[in-house]
Write a structure and sequence with these properties.
The protein is mostly helical. 64% of the residues lie in helices and 8% in strands. The chain contains 12 helices and 6 strands. The strands form 2 sheets. Strands 1-3-2 form a 3-stranded antiparallel sheet. β2 and β3 form a beta hairpin. α3 packs across α4 and α6 runs antiparallel to α7. The protein starts with a helix and ends with a helix.
């Protein structure tokens, strides 16, 4: 029985190989016939970068297995060594190669740091500007609060004087102080808070009253800045720009439309000469 098993094993070993085994052997032989670029660099005694140059010039044969994987023919490596002789590996060259890679990494890090510093600087400037605006608003609110407290004290004195039944001589100074007391800026109309003269109107209502799209008038004012006045609301999150028309700009805008042949619908106040402003425009400003 033992001899039979041994004979069977010998026959299996001597039998011709099947197609699957042949394919595996051919693949193994093909893999052994090609080596990586790094291994090829070691065999020829050059750096991987110089080896890439030899591949690019055709002095070494390489095969692309994938977009990120290349292998060099062993036959081309042996032919290269026979033609030129194996170059002794310089340890300094390997160090230079590593230093070059590290310099590239360091350069990338420095560029990223520069971008981050720029972003931090922009954010810091925005925060400082916001802090300055908040300080100005706080100062304004403190002044208004102080005025309100003074008015309250005056009213308390007035009520006390009325309750005591004093004569008009005691009430007159109190009433006069209330009349002459400055008004809070929050109670002023928008154009007064922005320091614009009476008769100033918003661009959009003015354009709509004359049958012209406000966006068209804004584009015209961007080309000719003298046609409108822009108020920048730095602390606002929405509607950061307000478009206003001073009294003289209203007449200039009408003349601009006439000179450029732009169709518009005249209103009751046209041609808006000088400081005269229509009641409807004043109403739109108050709104």
């Amino acid at each position: 029985m033992t001899n039979r098993y041994a004979l069977t094993y010998i026959l299996q070993e001597l039998s011709p190989l099947n197609s699957t085994s042949k394919g595996k052997i051919m693949e193994r032989q093909q893999e052994e016939a090609y080596i990586t670029v790094k291994e090829a660099a070691k065999r020829i005694g050059y750096s991987p970068r110089q080896t890439d140059r030899f591949i690019a010039t055709g002095k070494l044969e390489a095969v692309h297995y994938s977009p990120s994987l290349r292998k060099v023919s062993v036959a081309s490596v042996e032919a290269f060594n026979q033609e030129r002789g194996r170059r002794p590996v310089d340890p300094l060259e390997q160090i230079r190669e590593q230093l070059g890679t590290q310099e590239q990494v360091a350069g990338d890090i420095l560029r990223q740091l520069a971008v981050l510093r720029q972003q931090v600087a922009v954010q810091n400037a925005a925060l400082q500007h916001r802090c300055a605006e908040l300080e100005a608003q706080s100062h304004l609110l403190k002044g208004e609060l102080r005025q309100e407290l003074e008015a309250r004290q005056t009213l308390e004195q007035l009520v006390a004087a009325l309750a005591a039944g004093s004569g008009g001589q005691d009430l007159a100074p109190l009433l006069q102080s209330l009349v002459l007391r400055p008004t809070s800026s929050r109670r002023l109309p928008p154009l007064a808070r922005r320091g614009y003269p009476p008769g100033t109107v918003r661009l959009a209502p003015f354009a709509e009253r004359h049958g012209v799209e406000p966006s068209t008038v804004r584009r015209q004012a961007e080309k000719s800045p003298e046609l409108a006045t822009i108020y920048d609301r730095l602390a606002a999150r929405v509607n950061k720009r307000e478009w206003w028309l001073l009294p003289e700009q209203q007449a200039a805008l009408i003349e601009y439309w006439q000179a450029h042949g732009i169709l518009y619908t005249p209103c009751l106040d046209c041609p808006h000469g000088g400081d005269m402003a229509g009641e409807q425009e004043q109403a739109s400003v108050r709104k």
